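Q: How would the C-alpha cells look for this protein?
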Amino acid sequence: MRVFVYGTLRKNQYNYNTYYKDKSQFISYGYIKGTLYSLNDAIYPAFIEEGNTLVLGEIYELEATTSSRADAMEGYISEGNINNEYNKTILPIYDIGGKVIDRLPVYTFNISNPVHKQRLKDIIASGDYIDYLNKKNWFISILFYLPDYQKWL
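A: Here is the predicted structure in C-alpha cell form.
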C-alpha cells in the first residue's frame, strides 16, 4: 500500500529510521493542501485539512505490517475514533504544478478532540517540516527525544 508522509516519517527523520527504513520503498515527493502546525507539547508536526498551503511530503510503498506499526505510533486506533491522535484520511496528492497525481492515506491531526486542538501551536508557513526544524535548530531537541540518544554523544 502507498502512503503520504510529511513529518517524522520522512526520510532520515527519527520515526522514518524506526518504522520505514529498510521496510519501505520511496516513490516520489508530493504535496497536500492544508495547514501544518508545530505542537506545544511535542516535537512532531500536526497537519489539518483547513487551508491551502502546499505541505511537502513523501510517498512510500509499504507492507501491511509496516503500516500497522506506523498506525500505532501515530495514535490511530480506528476510523472515526474520537481518541485517535491522528486520523487516517484519503487526500489528493499534488505535484509542484498543482496537478493531482494520486489519492493516498495521510495522517491528519484529530482536531475534533478538543484536547488535541488545544495542542496546536505555530503554523509552519513553509509547509516543510524538515525546513522548519533546520531553521529552529531543533536537531538537539530531537536528539534528546530519542531513548538511545547517548550512542551519538
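Residues 76 and 84 are 5 Å apart (CA to CA).

DSSP finds five helices and six strands in the chain.

Upvote if useful.
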